Amino acid sequence: MTIQWDTSLSVGVDSIDDDHKKLLNIINAFGSDDEKSREELTVLIDELLDYTRYHFEREEEMMAENGYYQLEEHKQEHGQFIKKLMELGIMLDTEDVEQTRKETSQFLSMWLSRHIRWSDMNYVSCLILADKAKAQA
Ligand SMILES: [Fe+2]
């Protein structure tokens, strides 16, 4: 399972869209058909953990600076995602590699597209509205 980025995933801010494209690329590497070893998948999970930590921090800073009303809920979603990624990393050490790869791919693809379409769209549109209000004041 892989997801192609298209404009329905755009939140309207280039820097955030670029981060999301990069995340999709890593996630799609789990969904490609070529067989991957336990080691290769571990490297991918680590790469994803590093990149999501960086990206989530950036988003959370932006939300905090603008006093976004759902910052805590959004942070919780991010925290749960990181926790799940770490669990998948542990699963990878002990469970069947192909089974884990499939589960990981499915979870990541669904989570990211849902998170972008609902949670990220919501905070970005609030920030854009706040900017417009500031500009008019
Ligand atoms: Fe987010």
Given helix and strand content, the structural type is mainly alpha
Order of helices and strands: HHHH
* Large-scale geometry: elongated
Q: Helix amount, in percent? A: over 70%
Number of E strands = 0
β-strand amount: under 5%
CATH topology term: Four Helix Bundle (Hemerythrin (Met), subunit A)
Which ranges are low-confidence, i.e. pLDDT below 50, for 5 or more consecutive residues?
Answer: none
Taking all Cα atoms into account, the compactness measure Rg is: 16 Å
Biggest sheet, open or closed, and with what strands and sense?
A: none
Task: Quote the average pLDDT.
Answer: 92
Bound ions, cofactors and other small molecules, one mention each: fe (ii) ion
**Fourth-tier CATH superfamily name:** Hemerythrin-like
Show the helix and strand layout.
Layout: H1 14-31, H2 38-65, H3 71-94, H4 97-136
The chain binds fe (ii) ion.
Fe (ii) ion is lined by residues 59, 74, 78, 115, 119-120.
Account of the 3D structure:
19% of the residues are buried. It contains 4 helices and no strands. The protein is elongated. It has helices at residues 14-31, 38-65, 71-94, 97-136. The chain is mainly alpha-helical and 137 residues long. The longest helix has 40 residues, at 97-136. It has one domain: Four Helix Bundle (Hemerythrin (Met), subunit A), CATH 1.20.120. Bound molecules: fe (ii) ion. Fe (ii) ion binds next to helix 3 and helix 4.
